[in-house]
């Protein structure tokens, strides 16, 4: 009978996805069932799961590449522009388009001052997903998925699981169809960024920008106009994803093969 460690080594992605979902959901569901007013969402589940499975499967040799990618900042300046500009630009572009479909004029005064947003952005970067998710989704899962799948297939697999990971938020009314589709599309864009930089740090920055662009720029509309704007944003992300696949192809999302991050071996 195979040992526990051999099972983990042979099924690293299954172990990772199971643990990532389990850690997050188990911290959430008991509070929801008890009717608690404050529902915890353990956003560090993917990161913790990635490090645990990497350590069990390959020891320090598998943990070290994830840590290195989290602080990898020496990349072409273009990719910083992508990480910051693409999510911000997509959300910003949705604003003037929205009134063309009957929405009210955007209320720019609803956006808080930058000095008010900055500490909120910092807190959300740490506790609302980017830091807790990206080392797991991109640092651990992406390079392993791409050893046996094309970049497109791997992105869609990860995007669907990433969306499923958010499902318990629907129990408290904090999950939407447009948000779920956006996560799947973002899986393609994030894989493209990671494939060309090998940097979880850049994925973290894109996650922060995407999350807070929606949070703050979305304030210029309310009610149905807000929902319509978010669907327009999803359409823009779909165009970006299709453009990546059309230009780079489905296999690697990169014009030249880069050195793949080390992954655990038995």
Explained architecture:
The protein has 266 residues and is an all-alpha fold. The protein has one domain. The protein is built from 11 helices and no strands. It has helices at residues 4-10, 12-33, 45-58, 60-70, 77-97, 114-127, 130-145, 151-165, 177-197, 200-217, 223-248. Helix 3 (45-58) packs antiparallel against helix 4 (60-70), helix 8 (151-165) crosses helix 9 and helix 9 runs antiparallel to helix 10. It is globular, with a radius of gyration of 19 Å. The model has no long low-confidence stretch (mean pLDDT 91).
Taken from the alpha-carbon principal axes, the silhouette is globular
Largest sheet: none
Q: Could you say how many structural domains there are in total? A: 1
Strand content: under 5%
Oligomer: single chain
CA-CA gap between termini: 16 Å
SS element count, helices: 11
Q: Tell me how many strands there are.
A: 0
Order of H and E elements: HHHHHHHHHHH
Give the integer mean of the pLDDT values. 91
Query: How much is the radius of gyration in Å?
Result: 19 Å
The level of helicity is 55-70%
Structural class: mainly alpha
Low-confidence stretches: none
Pfam families: Rce1-like
Transmembrane segments: 12-33, 39-57, 78-101, 107-127, 148-169, 230-250
Protein name: Type II CAAX endopeptidase family protein
InterPro entries: MmRce1-like (IPR042150), Rce1/LyrA-like_dom (IPR003675)
Record keyword descriptors for this entry.
0% strand; transmembrane; 266 residues; mainly alpha; 70% helix; MmRce1-like
């Amino acid at each position: 009978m195979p040992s526990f460690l051999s099972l983990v080594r042979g099924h690293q992605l299954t172990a990772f996805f199971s643990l990532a979902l389990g850690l997050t959901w188990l911290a959430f569901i008991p509070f929801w069932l008890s009717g608690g007013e404050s529902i915890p969402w353990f956003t560090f589940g993917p990161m913790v799961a990635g490090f645990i499975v990497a350590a069990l499967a390959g020891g320090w040799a598998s943990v070290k590449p994830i840590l290195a990618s989290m602080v990898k900042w020496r990349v072409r300046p273009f990719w910083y522009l992508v990480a910051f500009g693409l999510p911000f630009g997509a959300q910003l572009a949705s604003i003037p388009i929205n009134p063309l479909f009957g929405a009210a004029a955007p209320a720019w005064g609803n956006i808080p001052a930058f000095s008010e947003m900055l500490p909120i952005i910092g807190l959300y970067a740490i506790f609302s997903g980017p830091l807790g998710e990206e080392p797991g989704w991109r640092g651990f899962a992406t390079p392993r998925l791409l050893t046996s799948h094309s970049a497109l297939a791997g992105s869609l697999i990860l995007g669907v699981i990433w969306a499923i990971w958010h499902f318990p938020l629907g129990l408290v009314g904090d999950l939407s169809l447009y948000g779920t589709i956006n996560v799947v599309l973002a899986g393609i864009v994030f894989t493209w960024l990671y494939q060309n930089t090998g940097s979880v740090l850049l994925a973290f920055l894109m996650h922060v920008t995407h999350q807070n662009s929606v949070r703050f720029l979305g304030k210029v509309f309310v009610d149905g106009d807000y929902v319509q704007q978010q669907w327009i944003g999803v359409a823009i992300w779909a165009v970006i994803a299709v453009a990546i696949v059309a230009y780079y192809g489905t296999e690697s999302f990169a014009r030249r093969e880069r050195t793949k991050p080390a992954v655990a071996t038995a």
